[in-house]
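Usage example:
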Amino acid sequence: MIEQLAKNLVSLKKEFAKNYDGKSQMQEVIPISTSDSFPIKQQDLELLHQFATKNPIYYNSYEQTIDNTKCIVYEGDINKYWLNSIQHGSSNAPFSPTWIMSAYVAVLLTKELGYSEIIDIGSGDGRIAYCAKVLNMEAYSVELDEQLVDLQKILVTTLDFHPFCSDATTFDYSSFNLNHPVFFIGGLAQMGGVALATGVIDKIQSHDFWKTTGWVFAGTYSQKYAPDPKNEAGWGTLIEANKLGKLQTISLPTVWTFHETDETPYIFAESL
Amino acid sequence: MSSADEISSMFDSESQKLENFLSKISDNLGISEIIETYYQVMNVTSMISMLKQQLDSENHKTLLDKINKTEQVILGKFNTEAHPKILENLTNSIQEMTKILQSSSGEKTKEQIENESQLFEELRKKMSTKEFVEQYDKGLA
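Running the assembly step on the lines above writes:
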């Protein structure tokens, strides 16, 4: 069901991207109501819309029917966050989010895999952690960039996904009392993601919850980046070096693949 | 046409292209012109390096003279004058654009946001062009 939901979201994105003639830097869509293609609880969809309407990165929205699905299109601009990140060197990779719907689908899969806590590393505006709360999971959001954490603080008034402004590679995760956590690593392997993931892995490997920990990595097959010799969309070497077991890969739309034909592969893995 | 003639003709053509690019260098060089100029400099530099290994001074004196002349143009006119100036102009332009974009705050209309977004796009292009030019600079060190 989740794989089909992901496929339907990719089709929706492709249809939307084909006809989009706006000028915004980033854009995404969220269905208005539950349907056969998007069998998502109405209450969850409403919470996803609330995240977008409250989020100051979006400056415009309008209704559009795409492939028989009534949606709201959200247009946004994240340039000032990009400028801040390059000015202060405050992050490994500039903020470029996944789609809110993609965050929801990816978190839904972790829930189905049996994880109960989400730790969103390099969380940007905290959308993955927010979706975890929408799905009644515990959520924590760790972000290095102060400006982005300030943005998250605007968004926690709907659902508190616990934002922390900290370097994820030095953060003390024992304070979260984790049992069956899954860490989402923000950033592509080739854009600082490997260093970030390695830092977090090193930090938690000695904890009791290590053996029950899951991992989600955002990958890419783009030829712009050097391929990983062990594949897995850039994450193969890290997965092998840390003895992780690959569980599944699903492709989902992201802001950075809006104009691309390939979506972003999300690699789900577990500590062994 | 002999093989030496072919090589000589090809080198003449590429050197001429290079001279054309160099003659157009100014403070207002666009991004595509910068990239094209550097590619031509790198192209001719590679040709020179390859030909110098293959040609001997007895049989290919004329061509070697042309090669030395072009090499001097690259070393003198481009590496010493034009390249540092291009890098300096890019650095200044990036600083200026960054300052303008940082100082822009307050409520904006959809049109203002989207127009500003184009400036951000231009800034990103200039930054990657600067990275490309800096790579060339590293090669000179």
